[in-house]
Amino acid sequence: MLMVMVMTMWRERYRPASLTEIEGQDDVIDRLKSFAERKRLPNLLLWGSRGVGKTSSVLALARELYGSHDENLFIVECRDFVEQRKKWLHADKRFKFYYDEHKSALDIFKDMIRSYAALAPINAEFKLMAFNNADLLPVDAQQALRRIMERSSRTSRFIFITTKPSAIIPAIRSRCLNLHFQPLTKSGAMDRVLLRIASREGLELTDQGLEMLKRYAGGDAGIAIDIMEAASAISDSNRIGSEEIEKVVRELRKRSDKVADLIDMALAGRYRELRARLKELIRNDKMSGEEIVEAIHDAVLEREAGFGARRLARVMIHIGDADYKLCSAFNSMIHIEELMVRCR
């Protein structure tokens, strides 16, 4: 599955503005609409694959609960916190009054969440505290959030957004209403979303182009929209077919090839080159540790015949170990380097 973001203007332009506009999640949306109408909400755990509407649902729910009072919605991108730690905390203006160079990143994070959750909402019964990619939070951070949830129940509701519900500690899962977001390809929602956007942009998305978009996006509507936007930029007409999409995908594959090169470097023992390439992928190409490990997994499967059954099984175990460690890691490079060394 392609993990590269090409362009993002359309993604934001056509993000659903209300719960009614969200496609393919009728059961979940009915529950959220009911909560919005009654102005009552439990803590939530929203889970499902990437690009199926989880974050858009939170934004739409907040809009229906609060209208223009967006101060009542506080979203934390957990990947930024886990990968950049104090650098991210220092740069984010929301942490300005809590930042202390002498404290650890985790202590600053906990102080900020605790203080904000205790503040009274603006013209509402409660605020929303949303944590995107919550599975990446270390266990001790999750445990701290569980205690904050209990102490701030009068002022805040917590929403955890994840693709891996099993990585959320049981103490949080048991305190949340679990809502599962279905793949968009099952209900035909992906087709409707892409064709509607193409129509609004005055484009003709061919049947072959639509099928190719869905195949490359792997069920992620955001990636499909980004690829279609990039394809429209290179098209000589208003027609988006398989040829235009293939051109975009070839460019995207260049970054995947950089990841595949890590395997060759590891097998040859070229660890300095490997470390430099890792830094390039994380800092310049903005790939997360999770994305790199997933791309390594795909690259290994493509080379399956060259590994042999036993070696392939061993490598897959190491990839699984690295994926698990990244759920609570503060430095993804350490665990990816370990993975590549063990794959030799």
Explain this structure.
The chain is α/β, with parallel strands linked by helices and 344 residues long. It folds into three domains: 25-181, 3-Layer(aba) Sandwich (Rossmann fold); 185-251, Helicase, Ruva Protein, domain 3 (Orthogonal Bundle), CATH 1.10.8; 252-342, Zinc Finger, Delta Prime, domain 3 (Up-down Bundle). It has 18 helices and seven strands. The chain has helices at residues 9-13, 26-38, 54-66, 78-84, 86-91, 105-118, 139-151, 170-173, 184-187, 189-200, 207-217, 221-234, 242-267, 271-284, 289-302, 304-307, 309-326, 332-342; strands at residues 44-47, 73-77, 127-132, 156-162, 177-180, 204-205, 239-240. The strands form two sheets. A five-stranded parallel beta sheet has the order 2-3-4-1-5. The chain has a two-stranded parallel ribbon with strand order 6-7. Strand 3, helix 7 (139-151) and strand 4 (156-162) form a beta-alpha-beta unit. Helix 6 (105-118) packs parallel to helix 7 (139-151), helix 10 packs parallel to helix 12 and helix 13 (242-267) packs antiparallel against helix 14 (271-284). The radius of gyration is 21 Å and the shape is globular. 35% of the residues are buried. Mean pLDDT is 88; it is low at 1-5.
Overall pLDDT, averaged? 88
Total helical segments: 18
Order of SSEs, N→C? HHEHEHHHEHEHEHHEHHEHHHHHH
Write out the strand line-up for the largest beta sheet, numbering strands in chain order: 2-3-4-1-5
Q: How much helical structure, as a percent, in the residues? A: 55-70%
CATH class of the largest domain: Alpha Beta
Overall outline: globular
Query: What is the structural class?
Result: alpha/beta
CATH architecture call of the largest domain? 3-Layer(aba) Sandwich
Our Rg estimate from Cα atoms comes to: 21 Å
Number of domains: 3
The share of residues in extended strands comes to 5-15%
For the largest beta-sheet, the strand count, sense and barrel status come to: 5 strands, parallel
